[in-house]
Amino acid sequence: MKIYTKTGDKGETGLFGGERVPKDAPRIEAYGAVDELNSLLGIIRALRPNKRIDRILHGIQNDLFVAGADLATRKPSKRSLIPQVGLSQITFLENAIDSLQLSLPRLRAFILPGGTVAASHLHYARTVCRRAERSVVRLSHSEDINQNIIIYLNRLSDLLFVLARYANRSGKKKETKWESPVPKR
Asked: Could you give the CA distance from residue 42 to residue 54 in angstroms, rounded to a whole number?
């Protein structure tokens, strides 16, 4: 089977179910942003973070693939044929956040993105996740979507922040606090 089909040569792509839409449609932007996030998590995993981070990211990558497929499916009759992100995936993220935070110092100031290579990439993934969330929210204003995807991405960005802090803590790298340019009184 050839990887190229030439069906997108005129600026259209196919959704699950066969419908053709422009490649710059909000739905394509939304699942494209989720796909970009998934790819970035693959880069982070290639950096060989500790096993706990890698295990969490592996599960998230699978969830993001499900979210992308869900977003690529407009027809309600086809949605029943694919898995969907639901409350169990959201609960997993919340439990991971709560568990990881037990090993972290209390956050008393804003911190700058950075630290270890893995932590820096996790901070970057958090910003890509927020962009994906904005794209999905934008789509939800005009089309019917699984609202759990918005909740999932919102929670995921929080988890990515906590994972970045955890990666720095595990790598014995001190976090850099943001310094306000406004003098203290």
From this structure: 10
7 or 111, which is more confident?
111
- Number of compact structural domains in the chain: 1
How many residues in total does the chain contain? 185
Secondary structure (DSSP) of 35-54: HHHHHHHHHHHHT---HHHH
CB neighbours of residue 151 within 10 Å: 17
Joined together, the tokens standing for residue 97 give 């956040």
Q: Where are the alpha helices (DSSP H) in 16-111?
A: 26-46, 51-71, 76-79, 87-101
- With CA atoms as reference, report the closest residue to 56 among 111, 94, 106: 94
Q: By 3-state DSSP, what share of the chain in percent is helix, strand and coil, each rounded to 5?
A: 60, 5, 35
CATH number at residue 162: 1.20.1200.10
Report the C-alpha gap between 60 and 78 in whole angstroms.
24
Q: What is the pTM of this model?
A: 0.91
pLDDT tens by residue, 28-86: 999 999 999 999 999 999 999 999 999 999 999 999 999 999 999 986 767 777 899 99
- Whether the CA torsion 48, 156, 174, 170 is positive or negative: it is negative
- 182: in domain: no
